[in-house]
Structures are given as C-alpha cells and as structure tokens.
C-alpha cells in the first residue's frame, strides 16, 4: 500500500483533477484546518467538492495542521477543538478500513507545495503507523 501527499501551492485546481484522473484509485483527503483560499476560490471546500464529487473529503477538523501538530503531546491529551490523539487514530483507522474495502488509497492534500515541514507529511506518517502499517509514502510534489 502506498499513501500519497500533494500540495497545490500556486497551481490551479485542474492540477489536482489531473492527478486524480491519472490515478483513479486515489481520494483527495483535504487536511487543511480552514479549507478556503480567499485569492483562489477554486481551492475552497465547496468548489473542490463540486469539481471532484466523491473523490474529495475534507478532514481538517480532525487532521488539520493546528490539530495534528499536537500529536507529540502526551497520550490522551485533549487539544485544539477538543480532539484527542485517540480520535485522530480512530478516524484514520476507520478511513483506512473503508478505503481498503473499496479499493482506494488516500492522497493527503494541503496548500503547501513542498512536503518538507508540511503537516500533510505528519498525517501520512501517522496514517502509516496506525492505519496502514507498513505502507510507503509517496510525495507528488
């Protein structure tokens, strides 16, 4: 199993559509805490859902950068928006079970074009530990 990450940076939304067209087994998992872009409305949650349909899922309330950066906190600690480590783990495990049953893999997306230092890399690494043990990670920068 391979988990994927990608950040749009200054690219148009059609770039994400092209990735999903080339890889029909991927579902875009939006990890942005705030899924909007005032200067780029095509990157808003509603616009992406309209363009991608069932191949887009916003999970920022659980996997967003302000939330996930706290994963290193002591086990069970509650942080931003009352989300616990257990809730993040449970969410990823349920996501993995559904995707595995339906033949999909995640493409964790956010706005940072480069994956180095970006929280989507943290999401993918955590997912590889708790939801898809042994999975590799490919960054589609």
What does this structure look like?
The chain is an alpha/beta fold. The protein has one domain (2-139). The chain contains six helices and seven strands. Strand 2 (26-30), helix 2 (45-52) and strand 3 (56-58) form a beta-alpha-beta unit.
Short descriptors:
single chain; 141 residues; alpha/beta; five-stranded parallel beta sheet; two-stranded antiparallel sheet; 6 helices; 7 strands; 40% helix; 20% strand
Topology:
Layout: E1 2-7, H1 13-22, E2 26-30, H2 45-52, E3 56-58, H3 60-63, H4 65-68, E4 78-79, E5 83-84, H5 85-102, E6 105-110, H6 119-130, E7 136-139
Parallel strand pairs: 1-6, 1-7, 2-3, 2-6
Antiparallel strand pairs: 4-5
How is this structure best summarized?
It is built from 6 helices and 7 strands. The chain has 141 residues and is of the alpha/beta class.
**Which secondary-structure class do the elements indicate?**
alpha/beta
Main β-sheet description: 5 strands, parallel
Order of helices and strands: EHEHEHHEEHEHE
Rg estimate, integer Å: 14 Å
Distance between the termini: 19 Å
Helix fraction by DSSP (H/I, runs of at least 4): 25-40%
Strand ordering within the main sheet: 3-2-6-1-7
What is the count of structural domains? 1
Task: Note the total helix count.
Answer: 6
Low-confidence stretches: 76-80
Average pLDDT number: 88
Apparent shape: globular
Instruction: Give the percentage of residues in beta strands.
Output: 15-25%
For the secondary structure, the number of strands is: 7
């Amino acid at each position: 199993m391979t988990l994927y990450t990608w950040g749009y940076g200054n690219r148009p939304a059609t770039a994400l559509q092209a990735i999903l067209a080339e890889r029909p087994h991927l579902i875009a998992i939006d990890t942005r805490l705030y899924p909007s872009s005032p200067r780029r409305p095509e990157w808003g949650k509603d616009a992406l859902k309209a363009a991608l349909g069932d191949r887009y899922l916003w999970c920022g309330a659980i996997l967003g950068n302000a939330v996930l950066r706290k994963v290193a906190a002591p086990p069970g600690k509650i942080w931003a928006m009352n989300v616990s480590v257990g809730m993040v783990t449970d969410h990823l495990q349920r996501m993995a079970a559904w995707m595995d049953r339906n033949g999909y893999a995640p493409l964790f997306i956010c706005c940072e074009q480069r994956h180095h230092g970006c929280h989507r890399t943290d999401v993918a690494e955590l997912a590889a530990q708790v939801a898809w043990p042994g999975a590799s990670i490919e960054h589609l920068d």
